[in-house]
Specification:
2 helices; 71 residues; mainly alpha; 80% helix
């Protein structure tokens, strides 16, 4: 497994753990203060969309994998 894919997996796991905690805090805030908590929800969706696009671009970019085939 190339080192860059291993690092990408580690970053994704750490980001997923952080996002889980962050979404839990947003949900708890939505229960305590409904207006403030639900206003933060679109920000969470925006961050998730940006992360999805970055990862999808990284995995589908053929030019970025050029040096994986060189011994």
């Amino acid at each position: 497994m190339p080192l860059d894919k291993l690092v990408l997996i580690l970053v994704c796991v750490i980001a997923a753990a952080g996002a889980t905690i962050w979404l839990g805090v947003i949900f708890a805030a939505a229960i305590q203060l409904p207006i403030i908590g639900w206003l933060a929800f679109p920000a969470a969706l925006l961050v998730a969309y940006i992360a999805w696009r970055i990862i999808a671009d990284r995995l589908s970019n053929k030019e970025d994998n050029h040096y994986d085939r060189i011994e």
